[in-house]
Amino acid sequence: MFRGSMVALVTPMKSQDGIRDAVDYEALDRLVQFHVEQGTDAIVAVGTTGESATLDYDEHRQVMQRVVDAARGRIPVIGGTGANSTWEAIELTRSAMEGGCDAVLLVVPYYNKPTQNGLLRHFTALAEAVPIPQILYNIPGRTGCDMLPETVDRLAAIPNIVGIKEAHGTVDRAREVIERCGDRLDVYSGDDGNAREMIYAGAKGAISVSANVAPWHMQKMCAAALEGDRARAEELDALMAPLHKALFLETNPIPVKWAVEQLGLIEGGIRLPMVRLASEHHEAVRQAMRQVGIL
């Protein structure tokens, strides 16, 4: 349903006390415009990179709505509406649909570590409750729960489950999902470092952290890989490889918010328990940005 480079958008915040830094909605408008101009293929609002864990329910809804309003139909908007409570995920998903999102991204429930049967019932309940197109999101390193390919295979039979962001960490896992159900749902890379290889394996693109900082480059790399221009894709991927690494020197979204701040697009606000990027990493991130030619 979606292809190419989809930015996992940061949520800009005013620099205040760090406990409840206010969402900067004017900066959010600027970010949307920036991505429209840079050619980003879609925006994911309020995912992990958007600090979904520390936005309250009303803020979550308001950020999704503001992104839709700022996009004005020029770029698809995918709302991050996953939760570890099925009821809460349904309410957020319904809000995203009513607010005009084109689809939603649903992370595997975190912390409570459901069984595979629990995952099957959770995502089935969401799909049945809200008819918006839904993209699953598997990231066991952050959720403590791995949604196995056989579970994805069963969920792929549901018509409005249209994709999965696979961030298991290995291309082999993505290949298995693609082999099982790639004809019924689209697979997207959730790891910028292996996005190119995943596209070669049959993925339709990437939901990207690095696209916050180098959206033009990430879009061109994904497009080249999708078109079979391996030389161009590998050239751009090599150029961005240090950036992919630098943006995970500390826990996401700490480095990427600092990097976007260096571009002058946002202030440095970030909510506890996340803190600003440690000074010893500043030069490494700057150098990676210089290599790409964006600083």
Describe the structure in your own words.
- The protein is an alpha/beta fold.
- The chain has one domain: TIM Barrel (Alpha-Beta Barrel), CATH 3.20.20.70.
- It is 46% helix and 13% strand.
- It has helices at 25-38, 57-71, 86-99, 116-129, 140-143, 149-155, 171-181, 195-201, 215-227, 230-246, 254-262, 282-292; strands at 4-8, 42-45, 77-80, 103-107, 134-138, 161-166, 186-189, 205-208.
- Strands 1-2-3-4-5-6-7-8 form an eight-stranded parallel barrel, surrounded by five helices.
- α7 links the parallel β6 and β7.
- α1 (25-38) packs across α2 (57-71) and α3 (86-99) runs parallel beside α4.
- 51% of the residues are buried.
- The mean pLDDT is 97.
Q: What tags apply to this protein structure?
A:
single chain, 8-stranded parallel barrel, globular, 295 residues, alpha/beta, 46% helix, TIM Barrel
In short:
This protein is α/β, with parallel strands linked by helices and 295 residues long. The chain contains twelve helices and eight strands.
Report the principal-axis shape: globular
Mean pLDDT: 97
- How many E-type strands? 8
| Name of the CATH class | Alpha Beta
How many separate helices? 12
Give the low-pLDDT segments. none
Give the strand order, joined by hyphens, for the main sheet: 1-2-3-4-5-6-7-8
Order of helices and strands: EHEHEHEHEHHEHEHEHHHH
> What distance lies between the first and last C-alpha atoms, to the nearest angstrom?
33 Å
Percentage of residues in helical conformation = 40-55%
Sheet/helix structural class: alpha/beta
CATH topology: TIM Barrel
The total number of structural domains is 1
